[in-house]
Amino acid sequence: INFVSFGRTDKFPDNFLFGVATSAYQIEGAWNQSGKGESMWDWFTHNFPERIQDTSNADIACDSYNRYEEDVSFLKDLNVSFYRFSISWPRIFPNGQNNRVNWEGVNYYIAVFKLLKEFNIEPVVTLYHWDLPQPLNNLGGWTNPLLVDYFANYVRFCYEQFGQYVKYWITLNEPQTTCINGYSSTEFAPGYNIKGLGFYYCAYVHLLAHARAYHIYKDEFYETQQGKVSIDLTMRWMEPLNKSDESHVLAAERTLQFTMGLYGHPLYLGDWPQIVKDNVDKRSELQGYARSRLPKFTSEQIDFIKGTNDYFALNYYTSNLVYPTHDITEDLNETSYGKDMGVSLSIDSSWPSSTSSWLYNVPYGLRSMINWVAEQYDNPEIFILENGFADLHTLDDYDRINYLNGHLCHTLRAINEDKRTVIGYALWSLMDNFEWSDGYEQSFGIIAVDFSSVNLTRTVRASYEWYKNLIESRTIDCEDFE
Ligand code: GBH
Questions:
Q1: Measured between alpha carbons, how far is 352 from 474 in angstroms, rounded to an integer?
Q2: Could you point out which of 34, 98, 201, 457 has its C-alpha 20 to 30 Å from the C-alpha of 323?
Q3: Out of 386, 417, 435, 482, which one is annotated catalytic?
Q4: Ligand 1, CB within 6 Å, residue ranges
Q5: Catalytic residue flag (residue 465)
Q6: Which of 280, 279, 262 is nearest to 271 (CA)?
Q7: How far apart are CA 289 and CA 284, in angstroms?
Q8: Phi, psi (degrees; rounded to nearest 5) at 462
Q9: How confident is the model at residue 8 (pLDDT cuts 50, 70, 90)?
């Protein structure tokens, strides 16, 4: 381990990768330009503007489709090792299927890849960051197993066209968020509130689609392209409300299994976590369902999914306190994954808040999450692919710097003290963008974007200078972040 500590400064290992992240729908704009098809987020924001805080949409967003050269110039200036961004499926296949290719869209991404290559910036590419082609959403989206085939055709095309540029692929971004906010609530597209049913079917289809995309790469492309494929998983760290109460400790662990374990277990150990099977099968039976609300994997599917994560792509933002609420045989009238877990979540009043209601600054939660993942899944290589902080467009964003500093210090401690393999870190986000149901109200960028100006003016924040400095020195002051 390349660890040097002199006085108050800690140094990152020489091979540790620093980058920034964005996603297509949040930055590109050009929603119907040059042959792009409609995505379910286009459909959602156009039809249900009241579900977005400021009733906005990402029709234009940062207009990065037309301004990518300017955006890449910031990456060059920051001197990041990599840039995580996503490809828009409906920009490639306007109706979601491979019978019609939009070559203008393909050429756009090739231009981005070439520019990144020119500046020696590694692309880390998400194949899907929530912008499902709308015709496939009409077919039932992530609750329809047919999606596995459509996704397979799309990813094969991307490997063919872009694979020569890419060493790190991410199949799907945060399925947990889609399955909670999109299929168990009306907050995110597609806004199907099918609680306690959508949550599990959506996970099932995502896992099968990921595994299919993984095998296609291994079978048809790996030999020539030599890249790595992963699915991006997100989790809040779950801390027992009362650490000396065994029932609280169990409730926190149960919550981790229902959220991260729901994906990690099939990927690394095979099948759903036992506690998930026990609770959902039992409650479904007591509720009089003809079959469990948790879909069953066949043994072929279990083998097909197991072992399909070359590295562990982890997003971490915040933490919760957990306490048990009821025995799972009780409270049967309500059907939801929350009731299947039998827990409630709260926060610690000492945690500093952000301007976003869900985001508290809890840096040690990242270290705990890294350790939990390492212990559950036998020390995989972990790549942190999102971590970031919300404010209300402040240029002197010292709260963001404080947040980032704390999380990077805890990442270092996971590497140096806990001996975990963390290979890199992507800051969310390069620039302000369309923050889903928060519209443009909350900003996550280290570059501010003036969405009211004609040129969508980009201005660097204090955190940009701070990050640039960190990348250059590869050292960080961790004294205040024990
Ligand atoms: C990530 O999700 C996304 O990948 C990224 O696109 C996004 O811009 C970024 O975070 C910042 O939000 O149901 O109360 O939690 C992070 C996890 C899950 C956080 C959904 C916000 C909605 C409010 N997100 N959640 S709540």
A1: 26
A2: 201
A3: 386
A4: 23, 26, 173-174, 177, 181, 234, 315, 317, 358, 386, 428, 435, 444
A5: no
A6: 262
A7: 5
A8: -60, -35
A9: low
